[in-house]
Specification:
Blueprint (H helix, E strand, L loop, with lengths): L2 E11 L4 E8 L13 E4 L8 E4 L16 E6 L7 H6 L6 E8 L14 E6 L3 H14 L3 E7 L8 H8 L3 E5 L9 H6 L7 E5 L1 H13 L7 E5 L12 E5 L4 E5 L5 H7 L17 E6 L2 E2 L7 H6 L2 E3 L4 E2 L3 E4 L2
Parallel strand pairs: 7-8, 7-10, 8-9, 10-11, 12-18
Antiparallel strand pairs: 1-2, 1-6, 2-5, 3-4, 3-6, 12-13, 14-16, 14-18, 15-17
Bound molecules: FE2/S2 (inorganic) cluster.
């Protein structure tokens, strides 16, 4: 694992809620190369878990991926913040940061180097990894279309550099500008099943793209996504009981906490990484009970089988689960 000492060289307010941070090496060592879709894990003081921020690239004329002179992050101030974005927005030029990475759980696949136009879809701050993908495709001379969705033009970051770089390949869809709005379903209806889709944004957007592409018979391997929020309770969630079969412990999981969180509070040391149902690291075997799968990792067949589950996000249809822990 690469630990990086970084120093902030510039901060810009892109919108009232989004700031960009330009980061240089803090110790003179060259910054590691990265690939489009990659992120850094930034350490936040007094927080157990680092926060993941995607690396933004907006310049196709220089090799920002292979020989980065700096890293660029875009951070939205969340409301409520769990500590990460609030800390980032309080930083000043010259402040030091410690990070790990770059990591990439959302890579552009080899197939995207073919002739079919790649469809890039960003919602809100989900533009950060998608912008890097668009830049990489532009540099490679590959066909692509970048759809950027947002609530309002005033809340959408990087509009000017994106327009300058991508020209007519950029299509902005703002809720407050009916002339630009275009339903996702319509966009997907008109796309070709052979195209690769990359989507990053809020859960509702990703769920909508997944449902529509499934309905249209799109190959799952052509639909790539990254979620920008951790697991949160949903309306109607209820408490459940979990038995850890190996230790014999019984844990009560309240409606507003995940199984993973309760395990941590109980002094267990569960494995995890993304905490949003994407990586599969927290997967456990289910011995009894019916999981309510909310992850983006398992196949439909694995979900139906119900033999494993992602405890960072999934819950239970039954009142009780027995896990092989
Ligand atoms: S920690 Fe990544 S799927 Fe649970």
């Amino acid at each position: 694992m690469t630990t990086l000492a970084l120093s902030i060289t510039d901060i810009q307010a892109e919108t009232p809620l989004i700031k960009t941070f330009l980061l240089a090496s803090g110790n003179g060592r060259p910054l590691p190369a990265f690939t489009p879709g990659a992120h850094l894990k930034i350490s936040i003081p007094d927080q157990k878990d680092p926060r993941c921020y995607s690396l933004v690239s907006l310049d196709a004329d220089v090799d920002e991926f292979g020989k980065p002179e700096h890293y660029r992050l875009g951070v939205r101030l969340e409301d409520p913040s769990t500590g990460g974005s609030l800390y980032m927005h309080g930083l000043q030029v010259g402040d030091a940061l410690q990070a790990e990475g770059p990591f990439n759980d959302f890579p552009l696949h080899a197939q995207s180097s073919g002739d079919a136009e790649t469809v890039l879809i960003a919602g809100g701050i989900g533009i950060t990894p998608i912008a890097a993908m668009a830049t990489a495709l532009k540099r490679a001379g590959k066909p692509y279309r970048l759809h950027y969705y947002g609530r309002s033009i005033a809340q959408m970051a990087f509009l000017s550099p994106l327009a300058a770089l991508h020209g007519s390949a950029l299509q902005v869809h703002a809720d407050d500008d009916p002339a630009t709005s275009r339903p996702l379903a319509e966009l997907l209806d008109q796309a070709d099943r052979g195209q690769h889709i990359y989507v990053c944004g809020p859960k509702g957007m990703i769920d909508a793209v997944r449902a529509k592409t499934l309905e249209l018979g799109w190959p799952e391997s052509h639909v790539h996504f990254e979620l920008f929020v951790n697991a949160g309770p949903q309306f109607g969630d209820r408490a459940l009981e979990v038995e850890l079969r190996q230790s014999g412990r019984i844990l009560q999981i309240p409606a507003d906490k995940t199984i993973l969180e309760v395990l941590e509070e109980a002094g267990c040391d569960p494995l995890y990484d993304c905490r949003r149902g994407e990586c599969g690291v927290c997967q456990v075997d289910v011995l009894e009970g019916t999981p309510d799968h909310r992850d983006y990792y398992l196949s439909d067949a694995e979900r139906k089988e119900g033999k494993v589950m992602q405890i960072c996000i999934s819950r239970s249809h039954s009142d009780r689960l027995v896990l092989d822990l």
